[in-house]
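Reference record:
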Amino acid sequence: MQQKQKIIFVINPISGDLDKSLLEEEIRCFADSENFWFHIYRTTGTNDSIKISELIKTHTPDIVVAAGGDGTCNMVGQLLLNSSIRMGVLPSGSANGLAMELCIPAPIKKALQTIIHGSPKPIDVIRINKNYISLHLSDIGVNAKVVQRFQKDTVRGFWGYGKHLIAELMDAKPIKFSLILDGREISKSAYMIVLANASQYGTGANINPKGKPGDGVFEVVLIRAHSIGHLLRMIIPFFTKSIDQLDYIEVYSCKKAILKTNKNQVVQIDGEVIGSIKEVEAEIIEKAVQVMVPQYALTDNT
């Protein structure tokens, strides 16, 4: 007799606008129809990683599901690094960039179907300053400051983000930095420096059209606009996948990067601000997490 699959659902109760009680009911109904064992863990913001790690050791699940946004995915991904345990995603955050990148459907019933009947896709992660990983997109500069503002606001969603983006653009100043890319050193200034393991933010803005989360490299994207007007003129290219065609956008593919700035800068990783620091060391870890995706999302080098 085939053994039941065991799945732990990690639910962030405050992410996004979705009613998590309805989400939990969907999970229960789906577990009954698909006949799998499950456990629900609700994050509290206090020692969540330690508690989830203990649950994984106790229950030895086949899949651990991140039900939240990119920050929740990051936390679960870190716990599953180089593990045979697969990761599932129920997109239910303010930003669901990783889910969009991997073609994981937004409707909960379809996302649950993907977790059970999809296929595991190995993706790379970026190790940052030894203590962090990025599954998706991390950056310094304009967007990181917007995320910092956004996290302190009670208004969520696209409009909350847009309000802070406009305010930050009006106050933006270029950052001076040095950058070592696989041993090659350059010195420049930019309004924003992105470490990209993927192509687009959860808003749909495509910062790195050639980015693929399983190709063994990541991109460093430099937004070297010469004025606020240049920054504003980036909006249409962001959503037409042509941002890399602007002459003040530079994109470098690498396996390792060391970034040093002239003063502390706000850094965000997968939608979560980690603080203000002057040096960032990033290195790719290939095929580090197995994420359940629809069959059609399984393509070479993506």
Remarks:
- The two ends are 36 Å apart (CA to CA).
- The chain has a mean pLDDT of 89.
